[in-house]
Structure formats: C-alpha cells, structure tokens
Amino acid sequence: MAEAISETDELIQQAGKGYICVTGVHGVMVAQDDDAFMRILNDSFLTVPDGMPTVWVGRHQGFTMERVYGPDFMRDFCRHRWYEDIVTSSTAEVKGAEALKSSLVRMIPGLQIAGTYTPPFRPLNSSELDDLRRLWSGHVQT
Known about the structure:
The chain is mostly helical and 142 residues long. Helix content is 54%, strand content 12%.
C-alpha cells in the first residue's frame, strides 16, 4: 500500500498521466481470454492486487506482495495528500459515485472533490465526450 501511494504521488508530482487498475483473480482470469482487457491491465501506470489469492500466487512465484484493497487505497491516498482535482468514478449507478464522494469527505474533513463521473457500459457518444472534456478541463491540468 505504501509503495502504491508513493508511486502515485510521484506520478502526480511529475505531472505524469496514467491510470490505476485494482484487480483480483477474476480480472487476471478475464485477461487470459480477453486481449483488450489484458492491454488495459498491462498499459496501466499501476496494477495492484485487490485480493489475497492474487497475493498468495505472486508470493509463491517469488514476488514480494501485499494486498492493495481499492477502497483502502483511495482513502489512504486522499489522507496522504490532498489533491483538489480528484474526480471519483464508479461503474455502478451515479448514486454509487456520489456515495463514494460523501464517504470520503466524511472520513477526511476538508477534502475537496471536484466532481463525480460514472461511465456508461458502452462507447461514449459525441455529447458525452464533450461533457467529459468539460469536466476534465475544468478540474484537471493537462
């Protein structure tokens, strides 16, 4: 967890770009049969093991690993360093992203979350792309 937070902080400090995947056995297994999903995991800035079975296999293969549970990572990273331009997202309903935002603000008084975004389970249409660009351009330095 500490290394994941440190690496993410360094990326942001250097104005780098990337995304973080938090996955367990299911994600690893899906990637075995889905080249596009495998590329998503492989091209990430950081992919961390969200479940203990993934950690156990990694340790058995000689890697030094610990579990990086997604919700704990987000909470701990927000506590570690406050970035005013945090945009939370969720693949569930919009209320899931709003609930996450509320929960983080409750846990970390003073935390400023710029907004929420819930992507659809399909390619974005031109209007949705425009909305997303406006969201990011208003809150994230490029």
